[in-house]
Amino acid sequence: MMSKEAFWFEGDDLYCELTPLAELVEKYDTPVFVYSKAAIQARCREVERTLDGVPHLACYAMKANSNSNLLQLIRDEGLGAEVVSGGELYCALKVGFPPERIVFSGVGKRDEEIELALENRILALNVESFEELKTVSELAARKGMKAPIYLRVNPDIEAGAHPFIVTGRKYNKFGIDKNQVAEIFRWARSRPSIDCVGLHVHIGSQVVGLEPFRAAADVIVSLAHSLKKSGMALEAVNLGGGFGVPFADVVSDKRLPVTQRQERIPTLDEYLRSVLPLYRSLGCMVLCEPGRSIVANSGALIVRVLYRKETGNRKFVVVDGGMNDLIRPSLYNAYHQIVPVRLGSREHETVDVVGPICESGDYFALERPLPKSVRGEYLAILSAGAYGFAFSSNYNGRPRAAEVLVDKSETSVIRMRETVEDLY
Ligand code: LLP
Fold it and tell me: For 324-337, how does the pLDDT look when each residue is reduced to its tens digit (9 = 90+)?
């Protein structure tokens, strides 16, 4: 994973592209999210290269990070957008994603959101229940339109991800039970105000093996075949997102503590290639919806060490970022690699890296071996480009962090740090 396109050490300094982060934080203060333009572009190009030769559309799942500058970058790489709310749809259109490259998912779309999608003639609504389908049908009929629909299938597959982000088991709220899809599809085909042309599946997020994707593909491909036999051929299949990314050893240096977490995560290219032949056999357009895999390792959250303290048998490093900036460790017990922005050679110690928020769950790492840190130095929390800022809040009266884009040795603020006036 170590490459010079995102974050890497040279000598003592952690760089983002050609910019030493120690300089960047002096200029922009902390906590700050830092993104590598080249890394985001590289991931977009990887997807496009892998799908080249197949009629396809990769729709970036903008819930992962919806900064409009990053969206522009991704749009310019030729990707479309996957949206899950009227707000995301509004932003995607405003950024200039062509409507015919936008798909809309979600179990709870309001009427106004469906109407907005119809009025803007987006590519497809990923419909998740029979009631939603009937609602879309009525709303489209009222407008004298034909609504483009993909049915989201719940394939009942174990994706092995954190229970909060597994979406394809039958006890999850997502999608239509695979055993009901054919009947609902047939009903949809009988409605003049619906153009039911595709199937959609999304089994979870940070899925770390290839097998669950193959199992989902088997379900979709066999459903597609049986629909075809009944005279209902598909125009498109959407295989969703959820491709896992590495969180451990994202940057390496012999002066860093050795981690115990050595799982090998497939590359984005490997994920897509593992299922492409299956979907391709259907002879229709293939869509996917990568979110995390485009932006997670293109970003880091930089924080400053405020204090060190020891109580009982625990050592704490208190930093100026908290769970309001990056909630993933608190919410999913997620592991994010943490490295000093200036490394040097020093002893290691085992610490809890905690934020300033009034909750014991406010931490970035528990009992983590790290180079011994000192007040005033900066730490980088890696793999924070996805579900970082997007999931941040003002909890405890904390203005949300700034976001900075790095392009080689140039930096630009792509979202201003909020101020206390924004809280009132
Ligand atoms: N498509 C649909 C329908 C989705 O629900 C999602 C993510 C994606 C695509 C993109 O999945 P990705 O490629 O990013 O894994 N907050 C959690 C992740 C929630 C994912 C929700 N759905 C986290 O921080 O791990």
Answer: 999 999 999 999 99
Centroid of ligand 1 to alpha carbon of 205 (angstroms): 5
φ and ψ of 328, to 5 deg: -60, -45
Residue appearing with tokens 């899950």 = 84
Decide if 362 contacts 323 (C-beta within 8 A).
yes
Task: Decide if 243 contacts 210 (C-beta within 8 A).
Answer: no
What would the two tokens of residue 68 be? 């409009």
The secondary structure of residue 146, as a DSSP letter, is -
Which tens digits make up the pLDDT trace of 199-231? 999 999 999 999 999 999 999 999 999 999 999
Rounded distance, CA 37 to CA 403, Å? 12
Site to substitute for ligand 1 among 40, 289, 335, most atoms within 8 A of C-beta:
289
Q: How far apart are CA 58 and CA 238, in angstroms?
A: 9
**Per-residue pLDDT tens over the stretch 132-171:** 999 999 999 999 999 999 999 999 998 877 777 777 788 8
* Catalytic positions, written as ranges: 358
